[in-house]
């Protein structure tokens, strides 16, 4: 046996208060020679080093004043958590101190040798191996066997004392495998051994697996089909197939048997399809025949079926319990050609120099055979029959609903669409198409667009005409003209007025309106009232104001004293106010010319701030001159502010 001495370089602590042992917490293979080092603190004296469970007669070697080494041959495995390595020392005060390290000592097993397949069967194999270390035969060993074939692999695990064999199960007959083994001890090993050399073996052959069988019935014949077995199911070379059949009500001794070559995958039985038959098929190789695969033919009476009619059917597997549905489908007993005129909604559309022929999907009730695709034929009607060439384009999609003929010239063509089935082309439907030039198509499209636009405009016009009053009212409502009544100049009637300076309110929500200006001609006589017949008014976007006429009439006189008797005077446009349901606004002239003579009467002025209107005093309002004296120039009555009525109380 070869022993290995392990040397490891470690770094100690310079200012440790107790001895330090290295290496610490190492896993060490049993049978190795290991050297442990003890590093003493400064000022301490070395006493001894030892390994628990080993002889204490081994002396440590002094390496330096503070470093000592102990070499031990590890022959025992760790039976508890770890094996302690101790170092004792004494301080200057003669106090004993010790410290240690933990080492795990175990087996690192060698790989199994001489792995062989002692017993090889069709579906299991026994493997055996040996140990180069005899002591392993007394240890509790766990081994893993890895089996590989193709692109798959599986691992099984066995254990036992001195384990040297394993059995592999669930293998495939006549199949090649690779196997490898590795082991470890159950209690003292921390690592698996290396894998053994791979063993290649092949299982023995066996009878084939059961065949997958199905059938097809046509009038007086029944065709039996089966699937060829792959290598992992044939378990050897297939020699031949055996087919037996008999009526379901007949005894088994009267069965018919036939042998089919290994290259064949079907057999045709000429039997009376009105009876039910029990058919079995087996595969045979050098190891024997497979389990029989059985199929029962249905009771088939041709008189009960119609050709060209689609039937639904289901296939179930017969089990010891209830039948298991395998497949559901549709089919024909006999397919027939589809009658002409299948495409009842055949349409076409020109796309440049191409023509696309379309049709609606064909329902199953219109099919007397399975449609496998469509084909479109076309020919030029402008050519003679002797020079007429037929072109075609096809598709293999049963669900297709259009085909396109490309690169056609201007002219007349005949298009024919046919359905492709197992019984040939059928369902012929034709139409004649005349191709127009692109210019004609553009003119047609332009004309249609113009007609559409004209119709839309006509409709809009009619609608607008019938609802013009409503549209005018909502879009452009009429602006009412101002109405001047005989209350334009109304007597004060004992009411005091509070002028409202609207033009001085920049933050008010009240809209500043243009105020009418009333001018008075100085050359007119004052007769105590204003005549409305000769008054001249002009209206502008800014408001109303009077203008002198080319031949001015007698001037209008402003009454000096407004009394209740004024209501009896003739009506005048200057004598009135705008009607208001809440109150009457009385216009007073403001800012008369200096020296004109009218006396000012105290009034209250409303001013505003951003929070609303607030009253304050200090503004004056003028009244008309009661003397009726004429002035040198027309008097301007500028309504700069609005007077609110005030209670006389």
TrEMBL record:
PROSITE patterns: FN3, HEMATOPO_REC_S_F1. InterPro entries: FN3_dom, FN3_sf, Hempt_rcpt_S_F1_CS, Ig-like_fold, LIF-R-like_Ig-like, Striated_Muscle_Regulatory. The keyword Transmembrane applies. It comes from the Eukaryota. Residues 111-206, 207-303, 337-440 form the Fibronectin type-III domain. Keywords: Membrane, Repeat, Transmembrane, Transmembrane helix. SUPFAM superfamilies: Fibronectin type III (SSF49265). SMART domains: FN3. GO terms for cellular component: membrane. The keyword Membrane applies. PANTHER family: NEURONAL IGCAM-RELATED, TITIN. This is Fibronectin type-III domain-containing protein. The lineage of its organism: Eukaryota, Metazoa, Chordata, Craniata, Vertebrata.
């Amino acid at each position: 046996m070869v022993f290995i001495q392990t040397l490891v370089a470690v770094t100690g602590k310079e200012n440790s208060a107790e001895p330090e042992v290295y290496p610490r917490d190492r896993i060490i293979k049993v049978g190795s020679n290991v050297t442990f080092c003890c590093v003493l603190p400064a000022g301490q004296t070395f006493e001894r080093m030892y390994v628990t469970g080993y002889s204490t007669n081994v002396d440590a070697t002094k390496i330096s004043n503070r470093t000592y080494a102990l070499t031990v041959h590890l022959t025992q495995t760790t039976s508890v958590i770890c094996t302690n390595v101790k170092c004792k020392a004494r301080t200057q005060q003669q106090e004993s101190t010790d410290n240690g390290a933990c080492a795990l000592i175990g087996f690192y097993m060698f790989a199994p040798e001489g792995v062989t397949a002692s017993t090889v069967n069709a579906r299991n194999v026994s493997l055996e191996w040996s140990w180069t270390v005899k002591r392993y035969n007394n240890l509790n060993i766990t081994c893993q066997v890895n089996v590989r074939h193709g692109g798959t692999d599986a691992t099984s695990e066995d254990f036992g004392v001195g384990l040297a064999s394993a059995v592999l199960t669930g293998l495939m007959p006549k199949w090649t495998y690779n196997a490898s083994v590795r082991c470890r001890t159950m209690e003292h090993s921390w690592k698996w051994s290396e894998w053994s050399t791979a063993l290649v073996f092949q299982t023995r052959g066996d009878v084939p697996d059961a065949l997958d069988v199905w059938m097809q019935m046509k009038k007086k014949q029944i065709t039996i089909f089966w699937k060829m077995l792959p290598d992992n199911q044939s378990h050897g070379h297939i020699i031949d197939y055996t087919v037996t059949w008999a009526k379901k009500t007949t005894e088994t001794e009267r069965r018919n048997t036939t042998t089919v070559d290994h290259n064949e995958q079907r057999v045709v039985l000429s039997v009376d399809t009105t009876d039910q038959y029990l058919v079995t098929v087996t595969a045979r190789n050098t190891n024997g025949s497979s389990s029989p695969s059985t199929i029962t033919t249905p009771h088939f009476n041709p008189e009960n079926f119609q050709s060209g009619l689609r039937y639904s059917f289901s296939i179930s597997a017969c089990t010891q319990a209830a039948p298991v549905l395998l497949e559901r489908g549709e089919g024909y007993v006999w397919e027939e050609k589809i009658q002409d005129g299948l495409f009842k909604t055949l349409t076409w559309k020109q796309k440049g120099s191409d023509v696309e022929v379309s049709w609606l999907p064909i329902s199953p009730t219109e099919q007397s055979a399975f449609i496998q695709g469509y084909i479109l034929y076309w020919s030029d009607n402008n050519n003679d029959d002797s020079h007429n060439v037929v072109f075609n384009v096809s598709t293999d999609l049963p669900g297709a609903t259009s085909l396109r003929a490309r690169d056609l010239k201007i002219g007349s063509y005949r298009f024919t669409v046919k359905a492709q089935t197992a019984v040939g082309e059928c369902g012929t439907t034709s139409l004649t198409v005349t191709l127009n030039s692109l210019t004609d198509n553009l003119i047609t499209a332009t004309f249609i667009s113009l007609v559409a636009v004209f119709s839309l405009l006509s409709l809009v016009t009619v609608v607008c005409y019938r609802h013009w009053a409503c549209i005018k009212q909502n879009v452009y409502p009429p602006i009412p003209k101002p109405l001047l009544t005989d209350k334009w100049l109304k007597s004060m009637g004992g009411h005091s007025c509070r002028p409202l300076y609207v033009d001085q309110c920049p933050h008010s929500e009240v809209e500043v309106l243009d105020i009418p200006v009333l001018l008075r001609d100085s050359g007119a006589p004052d007769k105590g009232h204003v005549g409305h017949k000769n008054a001249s008014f002009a209206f502008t976007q800014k408001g109303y104001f009077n203008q002198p006429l080319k031949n001015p009439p007698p001037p209008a006189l402003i009454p000096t004293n407004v009394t209740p008797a004024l209501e009896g005077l003739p009506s005048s446009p200057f004598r009135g106010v705008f009607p208001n349901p809440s109150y009457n606004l009385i216009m007073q002239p403001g800012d008369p010319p200096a020296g004109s003579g009218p006396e000012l009467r105290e009034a209250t002025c409303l001013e505003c701030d951003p929070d609303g209107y607030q009253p304050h005093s200090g503004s004056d309002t003028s009244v008309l001159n009661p003397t009726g004296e004429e002035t040198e120039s027309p008097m301007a009555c500028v309504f700069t502010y609005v007077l609110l009525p005030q209670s006389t109380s």
